[in-house]
Amino acid sequence: MKRLIPILLFSLLCLVLNTWAAEQPANLAGTWILDAKKSDPFPQPLRNLGAPQMGGSSRGEDMDGGGRGSSPASRDTGEGMPGGGMGGGIPGGSGRGFGRGPQSTAQSAPMVIEQRETELRISRTGVVMGKETPVLESYLLDGAEHTQMTQLSGSPDPVKVVTSAKLKKKSLQVRITIHGPNNKTEVKKEFSLSKDGKTLTVKSQNTTPMGVMVQDQVYHKQ
Asked: Which of 2, 16, 159, 185 has its CA 20 to 30 A from that of 74?
């Protein structure tokens, strides 16, 4: 019986550790390289314009399960929600200014994600107003809505931006609403890790007065 006690205690400890590990949220930290062959080169229009939801089943399908349009979208990358968050700036924001122009080689540069217990920062290079520009996204991971007035590129006055980010077991879900002077833009992003943690899929959906645009991008950990 005395010999069984240590074995039972060890088994119980292993069970507790496995349960704890299974409940831990996703850790997206690392340097990620874009897989251009598995990624959409440009945002694509949705053929089905029903209520937008995250979570399309595979590349080439929209997030409601309907098909995407076959032709490339207007080349608005949708990059550039307002910035700030970790280490100062605006809490829960992302990026800088809306970008226009084709996807360049600069967008294949590594994407670096820094993650802390309550905050996450993404740094990469994108095309903003036709120029290759460092883009910063940073989010508070409390799931709450954070509102700020932010100056966007091309906008003469600050606009209201509402951002929320929620970290789950294998994904990060981000929602951004930009209240412009005459319209509203809604952005949804889902960062999903593969089971082995080596592949990151980023699904983006932008809803504007011009329509709904989606883009899937696949990254591999360096």
From this structure: 159
